[in-house]
Amino acid sequence: MLDIKAASKSHLTIPIERLHFHRWLQFACTDGIAEHPVFPLILQNLAIHLYSRKTYLAAKVCYGEKYLRNPVSQPLFEQLRTRILPQTEHRSAKNVALFYKAFAQWLSNPSICSSSFRSYDDYLLDHLLQFIVANDFHIWIEYVDLEQLRAQLVTGQKVYISACHLGSITPPASAASTENLTQLISKFSKQNKAQPSPLTPLHPNLPREIALDLSDACDSRRCLSLFASQLKEINEGARFVCCFLIDMIFQLRVVSVLL
């Protein structure tokens, strides 16, 4: 709706690919996305753009039928309705399978988009359609496989722990409050259960690694002293550039006066 308003005010034609519904449709048709536990929420967002009623010039309108019949979007709608949804329905739990079956039924009946539509009882899970028409967009969390989602999160945590050589993700027991920020950082450093990274041989011509810990971040004098030579080179370079620019500006002013 916002894209349509923008197009009407700017007198510019916005391609169908930039409309919100088409982006959600493309997302729903992405390879492998139907296997993700939040796939029902992707379909919910698509349904909101297809079946919600908008107020335009004091009248209730729905653009869903135009979206469904658009020649650019039709192949994706057909792919979603005839291939993706039936396959996902076949391998899903009973209640989620019913949701996918209902969504395919909705896509097969553009009459649902009519502002005068009232035959909700003829369709599966009609209460979800009525929620959208009533502008109730609460998340349909009952169709999300939360156990699968938790399992994916745990797997991701294990990969992170393994990659970072962490001993455990269990937070350490709380200790007594520290007096200042330096002591707080030092406490975290002592409680760190991370295993050291594997040692790699260093070439003798390379500079040695500077040993720093978290507490050094609070000591600006120590940090600056470690990189004093590099900072000195940067300052000298900056001073040279400034002198060069000043000289160039002076020469340009002289030339402009002579001309």
From TrEMBL:
| Superkingdom as given in the UniProt entry | Eukaryota
The UniProt keywords, alphabetically, are: Autophagy
Q: Does the keyword Chloroplast apply?
A: no
- Residues covered by the Epg5-like TPR domain: 5-145
Kindly state a single biological-process term from the GO annotations of this entry. autophagosome maturation
Task: Tell me the InterPro entries matching this sequence.
Answer: Autophagy-related_EPG5, TPR_Epg5
Cellular component, GO annotation: cytoplasm
- UniProt similarity note: Belongs to the EPG5 family.
Know the name of this protein? RGS domain-containing protein
What organism does this protein naturally occur in? Gongylonema pulchrum
